[in-house]
Amino acid sequence: MNKIKFISLFFRVFFQLLFVALPVLLVIAWIQAPQPFIALGGIIQMDVIPRAYSHAILHTLSITEKGLGLLLNLAPLMIELFILFCLIRLFRLYEQGEIFSLKNVRFIRNLGYALLIGQLINPVYEGLMGVILTMNNPHGHRFASITLDQTNIGIVLTALMVILVSWIMTEGCKLREEQQFTI
Questions:
Q1: Phi, psi for 145 (deg, rounded to 5)
Q2: What count of Cα atoms within 13 Å lies in the side-chain half-sphere of residue 182?
Q3: In terms of DSSP H, where are the helices of the chain?
Q4: Which of the listed residues 18, 22, 29, 147 has the most CB atoms within 10 Å of its CB?
Q5: Backbone region of residue 100 per phi and psi (left: phi > 0; alpha: psi in -120 to 50; beta: other values)
Q6: Which residues pair with 39 in a beta bridge?
Q7: 75-to-30, 99, 164 alpha-carbon distances in Å
Q8: CB 123 within 8 A of CB 46
Q9: How far is the C-alpha of 115 from the C-alpha of 118, rounded, in Å?
Q10: Integer Cα distance of 150 and 123 in angstroms
């Protein structure tokens, strides 16, 4: 149990640092856009321009375009922060020795839904990002792109599996409670 508590503490602190760092890094990355943000000798790399648009930007990005890009990036960031929040809470419960409980199940289920919602908004995000990044390109060079690849499908399947696992764990917690009250 001490190993679980120690590892849980490590991951909770790591996720808390990410929770604070991600918004800061996102702002810095948009200031540097379209160049990727690279720090700590390449350990931290953040490219806010989707690959589909990296070669399509035919002008210097204005402050307005960078600001709109940052605002649009807040939607996926909020989902990422919610995922980190759920992980922080889940590992805090593990730290406290609470392994199989309905509280844990709730955070696991929320992780699955957040992953799923993130993949559902991704095409809209990519399309709007294309409009923002190419709106000042010359006529005939403006476009929006929506991509769907194996990664997206893999994340959707993972999200559905996490939701299924949370449902199974809910049933297991209910059975466990029933057994505790049986004499």
A1: -130, 140
A2: 6
A3: 2-32, 63-95, 102-134, 150-181
A4: 29
A5: beta
A6: 44
A7: 15, 31, 25
A8: no
A9: 5
A10: 14
103 contacts: CB under 8 Å, gap ≥ 6: 93
Are 165 and 84 within 8 A, CB to CB?
no
Cα–Cα distance measured from residue 73 to residue 125, given in angstroms and rounded to the nearest whole number: 8
Size of the chain, expressed as the number of residues it contains? 183
Tell me which residues of the chain have a pLDDT lower than 70: 182-183
CB 49 within 8 A of CB 57: yes
Nearest to 88 by CA among 22, 35, 40: 22
Distance CA 111, CA 91 (A): 13
Query: What is the tens place of the pLDDT at every residue in 100-152?
Result: 888 999 999 999 999 999 999 999 999 999 999 988 888 888 888 888 889 89
* CA pair distance 26, 30, nearest whole angstrom: 6
Which is nearest to 124 in space by CA: 159, 172, 169, 76?
76
Which residue in this structure is represented by tokens 């922060």?
81
Taking the model in full, what pTM does it have?
A: 0.88
